[in-house]
Amino acid sequence: MKKMVKHVGGLLLLPALLAGCVGLNQEGTSGTANTVQPAVAAQVKNPAAQITEPKQETEKEAKPTQTEAQKGDWVAYKGPVEHIFFHPLIAYPELAFDNDSMTKGYDDWFVTVKEFDHILADLYKNQYVLISMDQLYELKTVNGQKELVKKQLMLPKNKKPLVLSVDDMNYYDYMLQNGNVYKLILDDKGRVATYSLTPKGEKHIAYDNEIVPILDTFVSEHPDFSIDGAKGTIALTGYQGVLGYRTNELTSPAYEAEKADAIKVINRMKETGWSFASHGYGHRDAHKISYKSLVEDTERWKKEVKPLVGDTLIYIYPYGSRVDTDSDKYKYLVKAGFPVLCGVGPQPYLKYKSDSMMMDRRHIDGIALKTQGDKLKGLFDSKEVIDSVRPKGN
Ligand SMILES: [Zn+2]
Predict the structure, then answer these.
(1) Does 376 have pLDDT greater than 60?
(2) How many angstroms separate the CA atoms of 389 and 384, rounded?
(3) Which CATH number fits domain 6-25+33-42+72-385: 3.90.550.10, 3.40.50.300, 3.20.20.370, 3.40.50.410?
(4) 165 CA to middle of ligand 1, Å?
(5) N or C: which end of the chain has fewer CB within 10 A?
(6) For residue 62, what pLDDT is reported?
């Protein structure tokens, strides 16, 4: 596996991530150019649930929100906004670290369940609170022009905001063989669970081996870890479906059922504090591909994935490979309905333009845990976090 490190705009971007670089072939794009229309933010209304004590998540009370009275002494937050991202968790380390050709990739770019649990506990202890991206901006129409303006973030005193995102929660074919779960499902109580086949081939439904159900439980037990029930943003491609449903197989007899099941999970996640972002259709490198290819890829995402996840303003660059803000590609992405663009960088970076916003994210993975402990110190203790199940001497 090649390790690619690139410098874009002076920032050290992380080694090429995942999908495209772990033996996957992206499909060619064949999307036709639709009329480009700015998307409108999907606003999920919070149930006015009063949180006085931690409660079990139920169907009705999915998303804990702070009451207006509790918000009375909140203060305007002026500091940096951390944004960290993960890939789907390693649920079965014995498959991830089995010394096959993918082992190094998994060691570099993924974290284990144990590591994620430890990170979460540290973040909570270190006074971080989860916010959603849309708590940072507002879209306004001024003289017929869409403008994206900064929104003042209000937080409880001494708390620090944290945006969390998860890339490639598609459960690509290679992931099923290398220790990730197979798909997200809904149980009969409306809770999100994971489904997988264990290394022994047994069906396994769990709540404790992937970011979504782990965070659902954590926030339910610690409502003060989240502002208005915010959890994370899921960045999805489309070329092998979403969340483990092969919604890319448009002519398959299973297509309608796959699509309906995916939408059920997605809608429940939106009700419970999760949001979604485009990660391109084919996980293509926006910086490298032609303008035409970027347009085709983006339009195909809008045609195939947007009907599943709904409107989103967020585009998360595959490989963290962002395009220059003066470029036609950038202008296109903004006009195509993605005025919130996320790259990858070694520290918090948030910049507002009149029509768009750029935010960098830190990659939290094996490379970061092993080599960026100092930079990550304020968030969690990398040395303590590293799971002993990782291969030695890598
Ligand atoms: Zn990716």
Answers:
(1) yes
(2) 13
(3) 3.20.20.370
(4) 11
(5) C
(6) 60
